[in-house]
Amino acid sequence: MFDDETRSFQVVLNDEEQYSLWPEDRDLPAGWHAEGTSGTKADCLAHIDAVWTDMRPKSLRAAPLTGGAGR
């Protein structure tokens, strides 16, 4: 399914702001929604590389910092 370079994909996002790609002609899995970008597999992966700069899940990014400098 994901090896077909001619297939059209869409970029999907979950509630933790983690990105993936999914075939446009398939129903999205639970917990994922369309991000708005679609195209070839290469196009979608390039978009994900450009926008997903912090791989940490949203809940981890939002967590208060503990420890570190000043101690």
Automatic annotation (TrEMBL):
Pfam families per UniProt: MbtH
An annotated GO cellular component: cytosol
Every MbtH-like domain range: 2-50
Any one Gene Ontology BP term: siderophore biosynthetic process
Stretches assigned to coiled coil: none
PANTHER family xrefs: ENTEROBACTIN BIOSYNTHESIS PROTEIN YBDZ
Protein name (record): MbtH protein
Provenance organism: Kitasatospora viridis
Organism taxonomic ancestry: Bacteria, Bacillati, Actinomycetota, Actinomycetes, Kitasatosporales
